[in-house]
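Preliminary data (for renewal application), heme C complex.
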Amino acid sequence: MFGGWKALSFVSGVVVSVLGLTFSFPAISNSAEYVGNSGCKCHMGKGCFEGEEYKERLHSNTWEKRLKGTPDAENPECLKCHATAYGEKIAEAGKKYLPNVQCEACHGAGSEYKKLKENYQGKGKDAFKELLKKDPLEARKVQYDAGLIVAGINGPATVKEQCLRCHWESKDDKNKCPKTDKIMDYKEYFKKDDHRDEDEVDIAIKKLSPEEKKKWAAILPKDEILNTPLKPKKKE
Ligand code: HEC
Ligand code: HEC
Ligand code: HEC
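Predicted structure:
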């Protein structure tokens, strides 16, 4: 009995210090709510690469174009793939889902991330940008700590896994759209949907020593497909 307790207290000592670390992350992501693309307005502005790419994709129209005005507009079966955050915590009162496949469908609930960008450490709207210039990797870390997910880095182990939540590679897949027989050609689909451009973080990653790579392992790409060349930046 006593021995058991001793063992336990030893274990709980470790657990406490581990908890101290892990606790802050679930606490943040649990309270995060879906804010919708209007909450991502920095990315949606004119000339912003990922926003422009996104608007060209059908993801930005999956509800508008396919469900709106049909008997299936509110059908949960369809909403899980053609909409965002169905059944999740949404910031705007009374909303059961957000139309279309929005940024947060793949990047996670954004309310904490949004706060961070608008007011990092309570220092106002330029504080995050300053951090990004000074210490790009730390900037990425704090974004991820605030709940931002990027598949192949800190979310689903591979990008493909994320795509397969709503796409399929075989016509006989159970998790497929009842309205189409199209299948995903992953490489082609990825190329189309890829919206990375070279930013401060990518440049900083290229310069990392093997030592530093170990230090930042948690925020570096693990999925091979993320090592493919970035799309060239469009001239503004
Ligand atoms: C498992 C995810 C999933 C579910 C569930 C789902 N869809 Fe889809 N739907 C898709 C995807 C992905 C596509 C596009 C496929 C592609 O282009 O490769 C699509 C395409 C469509 C299209 C266009 C078909 C065409 O001719 O190109 C319509 C219409 C549609 N869905 C309606 C619905 C309706 C209505 C429901 C509910 C009854 C539904 N979907 C459920 C994922 C889904
Ligand atoms: C269908 C899933 C999906 C949607 C929707 C989506 N993203 Fe992404 N995003 C990804 C994945 C996967 C990556 C990494 C690989 C890539 O670019 O495809 C990524 C990468 C990014 C990056 C680049 C990070 C870097 O390393 O440069 C930014 C910025 C980004 N997304 C912002 C957005 C914004 C803003 C929206 C909405 C307008 C959005 N994403 C919508 C899945 C998605
Ligand atoms: C939350 C569900 C969801 C996820 C996750 C998702 N998709 Fe889609 N995607 C759809 C739906 C729904 C359509 C159908 C659009 C339509 O036809 O209305 C679609 C269509 C597409 C299309 C064809 C239309 C176009 O704009 O060219 C591509 C390409 C695509 N998705 C790529 C991807 C990739 C790559 C991933 C993984 C990074 C991914 N999708 C993840 C739901 C999703």
